[in-house]
Design goal:
The structure holds two protein chains of two kinds. By secondary structure, chain A is mainly alpha-helical. Chain A is 70% helix and 0% strand. Chain B has helices at residues 48-56, 82-91, 110-119, 127-140, 146-150, 159-170, 189-206, 217-223, 241-246, 251-258, 323-328; strands spanning 6-17, 20-32, 37-41, 63-72, 75-76, 93-96, 177-181, 209-214, 226-231, 234-240, 308-311, 314-316. The chains are: A mainly alpha, B alpha/beta.
């Protein structure tokens, strides 16, 4: 018997697949986007070290200095604060709002999506109809309503963006989970007597992660844009807090005399959103097993 | 006779379809003796997989068990609350599936998956103890270098290895009954023999019972002590394996045996059973096999035949059994 059961000792190792990063960097656009995104994040993290001045340090004698003035490569805003400092600190606020909204709204959305897919018979209808209802409110409107309740501020913006992210992430997680639910290993794991919670946590969620990750990246760019829009409308970060949308809003009064005050934050917002969109698309391609070479 | 480990009584599992229901398993009675192997044979779609899922209460919606009892060690599994049923899965009754390639989760190491299966029944155990037990489980299914395999991922293992891992996972909590649903169908022939040998050795070691679901009569002949032949959701013949192969009584069993190629006989061509399995929503009246049966008479169209004992321990659902009379007639 031992002769038949002994397995040949030969290793069954497929050649190592190219790592995710390498596949990602194959696309030159993605490489640029990734480098830019990393720089942006580093700039935000190390803003206190990089910033030449204090973000609240105003000097009215320098107000509205154009870019290229001595000591002010990007000029100064209407209060005479260094644009570079304001941008660096503004990035922190904008990125943190984005991270908070995607993490908070995304987790709740993903959880609801998993529950809808896992208990398809009872929960799919109720949860997804609720998501549809949430989707029918524009994010700006949600922001207005929340600002009316809690008052304008960063908290209100994060809450509004989270609420706007929940139904989108729920849909992504659900559709991805429905596919995984049909796979044999879910049934096999269930046959070992695993609890529903552990089935979702250990087997369902990890296999939906790539879809969630891709959407989270794409959504991060969108959320920053939306958050800036809410701040621009005066619902978000309040002066003197530096925030990209709020900075653009402050600058719009001086659009004719000192366009740089509004234009520069807008360019930065544009670049961030573009970078994360490109990055999300490239991630989707890189994570798609069908496209693996 | 000793009380069997598992007794299925009048099991009926239905699937809802637009405009009605059909029964994939329609009134099945079976017994699985302790420490022995029951082979369940039949063509694709005869209800044998649904039967096994019904025992585990894992029938996917829109299917549900509509009637019957599944007695395991004095408890009716179909009447247990869900939480107790969950505890039965894995610890009393375990299951292995046809496709070892897809039955393991690609994102976890095989060791982690075995640990996970154990944790379901022993939530208090320490991680180190569980790892120890998981490596022991891998060793028990004759996986060489289990310490190293523990860390490996499913894609690093061959099909036979994965099926061994599945068996290790199923047996991790020492179940009394193992349901093996086509465990070797997806494997090539030499590996099949190894897996069947392994199952037999493990049965001898642990004294567990096995329900072996297969369409392969060769596998049944090699493994089973008792055999149930299923056709269109019903058991048409039940007997000890030897009796069934030497003296098949139901025309369908005869047909199945006639369609297996053999090396020890001269035969011009294999006999095929005429026709196809009727779809479950358009079953013929009377005996479900009569449209394909060479022995069918008028009475076969009238009423479904009962599963009756025609020799000690040998049951057949055919009004023309014992079959010698039919041939003579």
């Amino acid at each position: 018997m031992s002769a038949t059961t002994a397995q040949p000792a030969a290793e069954v190792r497929p050649p190592r697949r190219a790592g995710l990063l390498r596949r990602l960097l194959r696309d030159p656009g993605a490489a640029v986007a990734l480098v830019f995104a990393v720089l942006i994040v580093l700039a935000a993290v190390f803003a206190p070290l990089l910033a030449p001045t204090d973000p609240y340090d105003n000097d009215l004698s320098l107000a509205m200095q154009p870019p290229g003035s001595p000591g002010l490569p990007l000029g100064a805003d209407s209060q005479g604060r260094d644009m570079i400092t304001r941008l660096l600190y503004g990035l922190r606020v904008s990125l943190l709002m984005g991270v908070a909204a995607v993490a908070f709204g995304g987790s709740i959305g993903a959880l609801l999506g998993f529950l809808a897919a896992f208990y398809q018979r009872w929960l799919d209808g109720p949860i997804m109809r609720l998501m549809d209802m949430m989707l029918s409110f524009p994010a700006i409107l949600v922001g207005l309503a929340i600002a009316a309740i809690f008052g304008p501020g960063i908290f209100s913006v994060v809450l509004a963006l989270s609420i706007a992210t929940v139904p989108l992430m729920a849909r992504i997680a659900r559709s991805s989970a429905l596919v995984v639910m049909r796979l044999d290993y879910i049934e096999a794991a269930r046959a070992t007597g695993m609890t529903d919670f552990r089935l979702i946590w250990r087997h369902l969620a990890p296999n939906c992660l790539s879809a969630i990750f891709v959407f989270g990246t794409l959504r991060f760019g969108q959320v920053i844009l939306l958050g800036s829009a809410l701040s621009f409308l005066g619902l978000g970060a309040q002066p003197p807090t530096p925030e990209l949308g709020a900075m653009a809003s402050e600058g719009r009064n001086f659009l004719f005399f000192a366009p740089h005050i509004a234009v520069i934050p807008c360019v930065v917002i544009f670049a961030i959103v573009l970078a994360f969109n490109v990055l999300g698309d490239a991630l989707r391609d890189a994570l798609d097993p069908r496209l693996r070479v | 006779m000793r009380e069997p480990l598992l007794r299925i009584e009048g099991l009926r599992t239905v699937f809802r379809i637009p405009g009605g229901e059909f029964a994939a398993v329609d009134g099945v009675d079976l017994e699985v003796p302790r420490g022995r192997t029951l082979g369940v044979v039949g063509e694709s779609g005869c209800g044998k997989s649904v039967l096994s899922l019904s025992v585990m209460r894992l029938v996917p919606p829109p299917g549900r068990v509509a009637a019957g009892h599944v007695w395991l060690e004095g408890r009716d599994l179909l009447a247990l609350p869900m939480e107790q049923m969950r505890q039965v899965r894995g610890s009393r009754v375990a299951m292995i599936f046809q496709e070892p390639m897809t039955s393991l989760n690609p994102v976890h190491s095989v060791g982690a998956q075995i640990v996970e299966a154990m944790r379901a029944h022993d939530p208090g155990a320490s991680a180190a103890a569980l790892k120890e037990r998981a490596i022991e489980a891998l060793r028990r299914v004759r996986i060489p270098a289990p310490e190293r395999r523990f860390e490996e991922y499913p894609h690093q293992l061959s099909g036979g290895m994965r099926q061994r891992v599945m068996i290790a996972m199923a047996l991790a909590c020492s179940p009394r009954l193992l349901i093996a649903d086509e465990p070797t169908t997806a494997l090539d022939v030499t590996v099949q023999a190894q897996i069947l040998d392994l199952l037999r050795e493990l049965q001898a070691e642990t004294g567990m019972s096995i329900i072996l679901i297969t369409h392969d009569l060769g596998v049944v002949a090699e493994m089973a002590d008792e055999v149930a032949v299923m056709y269109a959701g019903r058991v048409v013949e039940r007997a000890a394996a030897r009796a069934l192969f030497e003296d098949p009584q139901h025309p369908y069993t005869l047909g199945l045996l006639g369609s297996v190629p053999r090396l020890d006989e001269e035969r011009e061509r294999l006999l095929a059973i005429e026709g196809v399995v009727p779809p479950p929503f358009a079953l013929p009246k009377g005996c479900r096999f009569h449209p394909r049966c060479p022995f069918a008479i008028e009475a076969c169209r009238m009423a479904p035949p009962a599963l009756e004992e025609i020799a000690p321990g040998h049951l057949a659902a055919c009004i023309r059994a014992p079959v010698e009379q039919s041939v003579a007639a």
